[in-house]
Amino acid sequence: MKGSILGIILKPPMGSIIRQSIKSSKFTNNEAEYEAMFAGLELAKSLEAEVVEAKCDSLLVVNQVNGSFEVREDMMQRYLDKLQDILHHLKEWTLVHISRDQNSEADALVNRGSSVEEDDILPGAVL
């Protein structure tokens, strides 16, 4: 399948867990991590969330967002700037690194989305 599949899980304090696989443009792994963060935060915003604890299995992305690693590429800086702008509108947020093993549920969503035939879905479609 051409393009990337993003796996997003939103666990509101009350209510049902929301799981989404989203077909997106072709991204590098780190770009896909940022894109998944954007999509997850937009979903949280649509549910009027003010406090968000985000989890990500990319140590690079987590450390860039938290200010521990410098950004060396212009494209990654644009991603970081956009994410910081989104996070700025939240009352409170945290971003924590999780291991790949702890991210198996999101990975399963990516695999599920990858198994759908390309002609059956449009870019940006939620699967």
Task: Please provide a brief summary of the model.
The protein has helices at 29-46, 59-65, 74-88, 104-114; strands spanning 4-10, 18-24, 51-56, 92-97. With 127 residues, it is α+β, with helices and mostly antiparallel strands. It has one domain: Ribonuclease H-like superfamily/Ribonuclease H (Nucleotidyltransferase, domain 5, 2-Layer Sandwich), CATH 3.30.420.10.
Written overview of the protein:
- The chain is α+β, with helices and mostly antiparallel strands.
- It has one domain (4-120): Ribonuclease H-like superfamily/Ribonuclease H (Nucleotidyltransferase, domain 5, 2-Layer Sandwich), CATH 3.30.420.
- Helix content is 40%, strand content 20%.
- It contains four helices and four strands, in the order ββαβααβα.
- The chain has helices spanning 29-46, 59-65, 74-88, 104-114, and strands at residues 4-10, 18-24, 51-56, 92-97.
- α1 (29-46) packs parallel to α3.
- One of its GO terms (molecular function) is RNA-DNA hybrid ribonuclease activity.
- Residues 7-112 form the RNase H type-1 domain.
